């Protein structure tokens, strides 16, 4: 057998074998690479390359090494799922680098982190001022996760004291000009409804690239023809504005009338309407 | 515009809003939102009734504007 054929056969066989063995180790390697994962990965690669290029002393020895290097990690991963002690050794523990806003120098040293490393990792998390950090931890994968101080955290409706309406996932009802029946029926709508809505927007069904319906049944469209401006659904805003106008009207009538009975009725109506507005604001406006 | 015409306009707007709320509630998925919408559309229905009653009085006082 000529040498090139030998190498071709070996490489093909090894390729298949390595593929199989690596599958055996499992998926988690590439998604979260710890130092241990890196070492095993490199070892497997180097051994496979050495065998395929005939650098190993003999084939059996090489194959044994390869099987051990893939078998042990697979075993250890299985064990580490079961026992926390194994997990801590193999994957390492997270190290707290900043606690209560103070950098812990000894922990930094333990993790072999220079202050520059810490700052650069924090910058990757969009934190440019270390004083903004309340708590930071070095994950086993080498990434730094940071919790910002309460007053530096992004503003959410809750911290701003706002009520917001619940919104479920919008359903995609049209793609590439074809109507998707399943999402439509999931929303409790049908083709006729869709055709009416398209007519309201003045759009031909063939021209629709994407059509989505939000949780209150408003249709949002994107067209193939980008020169056409599609009117954005304004039903929510319009309903809210009309409610406000009606409330103002009632107040105006209450001021205008001279009959005490009517005055009372208008006043009450305006009060009820302002309650309605308050209750609907999260749903219609936010 | 007379008062009766103005009240009529407000009435029409309110009815429109009520309709919109009802369509939202019938197509909305979230039961909580549905409940809020239904409750408020009932409140608006009460106001509509009150305004209609008042409109009846106004039309009785100014019969020349009836029906506009």
UniProtKB/TrEMBL annotation, chain A:
A Pfam family: DUF421
Q: Would you tell me the Gene Ontology cellular component terms?
A: plasma membrane
Q: How does it sit in the membrane?
A: Multi-pass membrane protein
Q: Where in the numbering of this chain does the YetF C-terminal domain appear?
A: 82-214
Superkingdom of origin:
Bacteria
Mind listing the UniProt keywords for this protein, alphabetically?
Cell membrane, Membrane, Transmembrane, Transmembrane helix
Q: Which residues form the YetF-like N-terminal transmembrane domain?
A: 12-76
Q: According to its UniProt record, which protein family does this protein belong to?
A: Belongs to the UPF0702 family.
**Source organism phylogeny:** Bacteria, Bacillati, Bacillota, Clostridia, Eubacteriales
**Cellular compartment(s):** Cell membrane
Name recorded for this polypeptide: DUF421 domain-containing protein
Q: Transmembrane residues, as ranges?
A: 6-26, 38-57, 63-81
Q: Which InterPro entries match?
A: DUF1657, DUF421, UPF0702_alpha/beta_dom_sf, YetF_N
Q: Where's it mainly located?
A: membrane
Origin organism is Pelotomaculum propionicicum
From TrEMBL, chain B:
At the top level, the lineage of the source is Bacteria
The protein depicted here goes by the name DUF1657 domain-containing protein
Q: Pfam families given for it?
A: DUF1657 (PF07870)
Q: Which organism is it from?
A: Pelotomaculum propionicicum
